[in-house]
């Protein structure tokens, strides 16, 4: 981690409010190409700023609570973006929540986790992590994904792949309960299960002051709002690009998930480069748990006023990929050690998901 205690990165302080100002200026307007280029540049800058501020806050509060901050912040904004797009209507919104959340699960459990294992294994030959904590997180992900996105395909009370009202309420309560229990286990009762078991100490950087940490927390929220807001501004261009390449409309959810998960991906890779793969896995699996555990309850409440059907059930191809992810994830986590092979397997599953999402 950079020496965050001395001072906050100047560009990381300036970029989030600047991006938020540009977001306010371009919201709801047609943009010429030069302005779109500026928006994309600010989007990338806001992602980097979010990573910096998340690391400052994490360094102040310590792990594993620090890993939780970025995951929750990103997921809360993700939920807001999904609901905003669903309220605005349009074709494909009935499956937007499912497509985005499933993409987030596949990218975190295979893409971010696989990339983190790859970076660590290239440096240290073997990535060592805590199997108890990582296994518990993976179990929560598999259970949440199955209850919320697999069961609707097979229930019979409503036309598949939909839940009835009571079924959706049950899935929402179960998701929120499991997420809350995970937070308690990770940060209170079994905190040591989610701490690094090997590697150097948390650098020699000066501990940020409380004022610096609070400033970074505020700027982190601003940066994440800017990231999602600018992604929303670019959503029309994203949809046009998806259509131009001949991809299905569901691929929009994949693009949204990729944009939203950029801060966590960069933070996970940075930790992996410092031989702190446990923190990277905390970010990956914690993000997947938060994505389901917060999104499903929010969508369940929003469905009261949303028009049209809410489709949460996965298709056959998606269920196969989720099952493969669960099986491979268990085999990776059980030994508490991983090599380049496990990293390559997870990255291959992520690549297969992205390819099949574009060409089902």
TrEMBL record:
* Record GO terms (molecular function): potassium:proton antiporter activity; sodium:proton antiporter activity
Chief location: membrane
Protein localization: Membrane
UniProt keyword list: Membrane, Transmembrane, Transmembrane helix
What membrane topology does the annotation report for this chain? Multi-pass membrane protein
Residues spanning the signal sequence: none
Enumerate the transmembrane spans: 38-58, 65-89, 101-122, 134-155, 167-185, 213-231, 251-269, 281-305, 311-333, 340-358
Alphabetical GO CC annotations of the entry are: plasma membrane
- The superkingdom listed in its UniProt entry is Bacteria
Query: Is the keyword Lipoprotein assigned to this protein?
Result: no
* Ranges where the Sodium/calcium exchanger membrane region domain occurs: 37-186, 216-356
4Fe-4S found in the keyword field? no
Name of the featured protein:
Ionic transporter y4hA
